[in-house]
Amino acid sequence: xxxxxxxTVKKNENFSEWYTQVVIKAELADYAPVKGLIVxxxxxxxxxxxxxxxxxxxxxSTGHQNGFLPVLxxxxxxxxxxxxxxxxxxxxxxxxxxxxxEIGDRxxxxxxxxxxxxxxxxxxxxxxxxxxxxxxxxxxxxxxxxKSTKPFLRTxxxxxxxxxxxxxxxxxxxxxxxxxxxxxxxxxEEELAIPxxxxxxxxxxxxxxxxxxxxxxAIMPDGKAxxxxxxxxxxxxxxxPFEIKFLDKENIENFAWQTSWGVSxxxxxxxxxxxxxxxxxxxxxxVSPIQIxxxxxxxxxxxxxxxxxxSKEIEQILSKKKIRVHIDIRDEFTPGYKxxxxxxxxxxxxxxxxxxxxAKGKIVLVRRDNQKKTDLSFENVENGIDSMLNExxxxxxxxxxxxxxxxxxxxxDFEKFKSAIEDGLFLNSPWCGDQKCEEKxxxxxxxxxxxxxxxxxxxxxxxxSCKKPSKENVIFARGY
Amino acid sequence: xxxxxxxTVKKNENFSEWYTQVVIKAELADYAPVKGLIVxxxxxxxxxxxxxxxxxxxxxSTGHQNGFLPVLxxxxxxxxxxxxxxxxxxxxxxxxxxxxxEIGDRxxxxxxxxxxxxxxxxxxxxxxxxxxxxxxxxxxxxxxxxKSTKPFLRTxxxxxxxxxxxxxxxxxxxxxxxxxxxxxxxxxEEELAIPxxxxxxxxxxxxxxxxxxxxxxAIMPDGKAxxxxxxxxxxxxxxxPFEIKFLDKENIENFAWQTSWGVSxxxxxxxxxxxxxxxxxxxxxxVSPIQIxxxxxxxxxxxxxxxxxxSKEIEQILSKKKIRVHIDIRDEFTPGYKxxxxxxxxxxxxxxxxxxxxAKGKIVLVRRDNQKKTDLSFENVENGIDSMLNExxxxxxxxxxxxxxxxxxxxxDFEKFKSAIEDGLFLNSPWCGDQKCEEKxxxxxxxxxxxxxxxxxxxxxxxxSCKKPSKENVIFARGY
Lengths: 480, 480
Prior knowledge:
The structure is a homodimer. Chain A folds into 3 domains: 15-275, BirA Bifunctional Protein, domain 2; 290-387, Anticodon-binding domain (Rossmann fold, 3-Layer(aba) Sandwich), CATH 3.40.50.800; 409-477, C-terminal domain of ProRS (Translation Initiation Factor IF3), CATH 3.30.110.30. The mean pLDDT of chain A is 96. By secondary structure, the first copy, chain A, is an alpha+beta fold. The first copy, chain A, is built from 13 helices and 23 strands. The first copy, chain A, is globular.
């Protein structure tokens, strides 16, 4: 395989260029003609579909339903909750014309749908009978990016889901916020094999318009944090301006309590960064479009016939077990080329079958995550493969988990803090709770408070910055 | 149930008002704050999900894959195929600003994605190895509507899928066009229980930019035709301006052959119109969000306990069979109210169970399509329900099919033609093939040529308009 076709830089030497090459060469995505926008190719979209199906099932089984909202929101509506509007205004795309006609109230392309959804909810909700209302929307959001495009991580339009729920009580709404964060964590850890730290955002970092924001954060190989999803408690901040009111069982009118939450395709960005290696993508089996690739190896026509026949038998057996399997019978490429090609595309497990294997009644399994080769006899194909896929999934998670643990350090001294941030670490450090300290640390080190972890131990050490008594330990890191 | 909650007009007295009431009161959709746009509520979106799942499965099993395209297309790209651009230009929404900054090349909101998709395809396709390329996109299209909003039928943004394929030969591309039309027909007839007539569009009615368009057309209760989906042969009309070229096995460069095709949520509009009645929606079981509603009937607390217990047993049995079942245990409504409510929402089958039924060891089944009541003993619940759901599905299709047959008449005389169009018929009439006659007929009667059916018998009668020898019989009707 020529250098130009494979990945030409090492992950730990030029991480940014490595990332771009993996995205393009593994055919996950490509740049659209407009700056800031990308196109998802089938291989990339299939990962999104797996993730979507898995999350969608969990949301439906907990009483959520899907709906559809249009992409256009009138400016007058978007500006109804002023803090929210101020937060999004600088990055809104504006539609001013339809055909040759100018539009009166200009139309925003949805940066997020709170305002539109809640103007509808206020019409639909009249009584306690209408609650809870738990609707999720699979769509895209549009926020103009000025900085250079980075597929899945920095784009002006991105695939996501946004959930918007309404409840009769504060308690029920807060329970929903946590229950969604748990669903997110489970999805990311079990499907994408990426461990996350969950907790609250600081007031500075919360969603504009929320009472508070809960988040899950993951560490990337360069030590930077990536926000993997957020679940917001909106309190009555939107129900009041949007007049979402209901009559309770005593016939008394109340403002409702709300939540909103979302994850986006940046999860695919995390997947690429966390598991990939110098050869390209490494995909966890549960979201891999192809879980097993079979590469038949032969040097004569007579071998070819027998080996392809056996390969197809194996494909049949695995397909019946709902394993996503693909045979690569392209005659124009050598087995070696095919090995590299599927390694670059991150297929978790390769089956090789050549004349000698056939004679011995076995196949060779090659794992993508650790390159290990194992022989498996034909009889054991039906039952031996599932467990190996599970092992790969588990190994990827454990590896990422060890990395997170190793890179998260408890530090209480600011000098050590500064050099540790340069080294790309997550710092578990004491903080007084004052936004001024938060801002000062950001200014000096470039690190944000990513998350105030749930159940983090209260530290006896003083605030890392001002030395006043600390309120709690929080996780500092530079972020994406 | 009060008149205001139910449908207050009869379907055959005020069809348009009836339609709107059904959409709003059955909670399928609602009007968004911007004219021309609608929101889908969960009940309506669930129908779209069923339809989508069914079609998606068929497309994937025939080698299509899904992808994602951004909604923004630069004007310079949209205008690359001039005929295509001229067709869509008047209804394009234009983005001119991002935040406070003006955008240089203004951006169109996707009216359809040929231009964007093909600019990408030209980068991806180099050799015969890259063909065929068969990608489908589930997204929305935006086309500004000036006329009054009609949910699912006339909206400025609509949910749809658009498929875009590229082939090495003309023959293969034309085969794809037909194969997709067959998949569409199968989906609409089997899932939505709506019979269609398939064939070609005339040159006047074809997609702007296509060599020819194939279509499926259905008759609505008012005798108007609704275009249910189209599949276009694009020839090399786009591959030439967009330079989609490939090297064949002899290393010779060729322009590729293309198709595009789509169906939209207007299929839900058809569903409402074709099957609905004075009580509201009537949903075919295969796409109904709830296939069976169980209404327990009781007048004392002791009855209540036993009846709800039995109802839940039945729910369990049906759920295990993957039947979408719902028990209505709302205490605040009477059984009579519940019957009307679920009838309005079109649930195909109702199970009633009261104290006398319980004593006799049976339930009562009430069909939505024909109001027929049947008793079913507890032992037969497990096996007796499936077949009834199939019967309902079949009956809805047969009823719609009879209507189509009855309302399609062979007419060769223009005076009869004019009055038949007023009566709301599909007319199978001879046509010379001249666009001038097509336009003249449209001007006088308001009827278009909806479709040139495949294998329609050549008529010995002269053209209905000019009396010259006819080329073929075609279907005339007024359209939506």
